[in-house]
Amino acid sequence: xxxxxxxxxxxxxxxxxxxxxxxxxxxxxxxxxxxxxxxxxxxxxxxxxxxxxxxxxxxxxxxxxxxxxxxxxxxxxxxxxxxxxxxxxxxxxxxxxxxxxxxxxxxxxxxxxxxxxxxxxxxxxxxxxxxxxxxxxxxxxxxxxxxxxxxxxxxxxxxxxxxxxxxxxxxxxxxxxxxxxxxxxxxxxxxxxxxxxxxxxxxxxxxxxxxxxxxxxxxxxxxxxxx
Length: 227
Prior knowledge:
Elements: H1 4-13, H2 19-31, E1 49-50, E2 56-60, H3 68-71, H4 79-90, E3 111-115, H5 128-143, E4 150-154, H6 155-168, E5 184-185, E6 191-195, H7 200-203, H8 210-224
Parallel strand pairs: 2-3, 2-4, 4-6
Antiparallel strand pairs: 1-3, 5-6
Helix pairs in contact: 4-8
């Protein structure tokens, strides 16, 4: 019998619900970026990655056009992934400080990374209907992770997706907490921590610094009892 995560992964990878996103991913894979002209792009929906026994769920936005859309692993192949992995490594969740390729040896311990949307969207801006269409994949993947105690939500879209996910579990907080970096919200289920997304727009401008993100993951580790 196949493991639940493997079944969910297959469904994600073979999803064709959003024509605009599937078309965009295919076009990017054909045109490529000069730096990756010799690469074969993944160009399919991207499933989650990490420890199936994780207590910490990292919930991001969507694959980057030349990042995970190229490598096939969430938050891999661009500066955002490296910035994130340095913080996760410092908090004891990752065995290396970079996230370059699907075969780079990166392993996560006690953490699992997913995205609210599984296909790269134009301008990193998925439409509300696309976010809604992808939400069942998030529900199914998290349902296969039995030990989640903490959700680290990267960016406003990730933060909103976290509350929709909890609502599907019967956990509704009113009024809904406002997104800000470092906010910690305890619920009857997982604790939610908000963080700015490690996009180049945020990290290059200093809106999100390495110590800021590292602090978020150290807090997540403490709340989850991770050692």
